[in-house]
Write a structure and sequence with these properties.
By secondary structure, the protein is mainly beta. It contains 1 helix and 9 strands. It has a domain at 21-102: Immunoglobulins (Immunoglobulin-like). It holds the Pfam family AMPK1_CBM.
């Protein structure tokens, strides 16, 4: 429907081992009814966007996407729009879509180093005092 000539088909989300990435779409230019659609819905489903609390002219939607390139558009008050402040592409027939690259999250959690704030690895322990308390506690039982 809005393809620009690039193969934007997505694999079904039921693939074994496929990791979906929560992705936030934002339309910061106002409107009354705002939707987002794109290659991730095969351009067939219009996902409603909600106003951000405290910012009634900013709309957002969070979608779980497969890693890779995605094209999308916004449907704002009955008109198709793309976000000119984000990367976009113009297709063979003049159709303009916004582009987004979803990456897999890093599977390895950050390893705490001794200098990391809030890390207990840098606590100083008085071993002699600790052993003394431990011995007294054992003797009192």
């Amino acid at each position: 429907m809005f393809s620009s000539g690039i193969d934007s088909r997505q694999e079904p989300s039921g693939l074994a081992g496929a990791m979906l990435v929560p992705t936030r779409f934002v339309w910061p230019y106002g409107g009354k009814r705002v939707f987002v659609t794109g290659s991730f819905t095969r351009w067939s489903e219009h996902l409603p966007m909600s106003p951000v609390e405290g910012c009634p002219t900013v709309f957002q939607a969070i979608c779980s996407l497969m890693p890779g390139f995605h094209q999308y558009k916004f449907y704002v008050d009955g008109e198709w729009r793309h976000d000119e402040q984000q990367p976009f592409m113009r297709g063979n027939h003049g159709i303009v879509n916004t582009l987004f690259l979803t990456r897999e999250p890093d599977p390895m959690p950050a390893i705490l180093s001794p200098g990391t704030p809030g890390n207990r690895m840098n606590m100083d322990v008085d071993i002699e005092a600790f052993q003394h308390v431990e011995i007294r506690h054992t003797n009192s039982l």
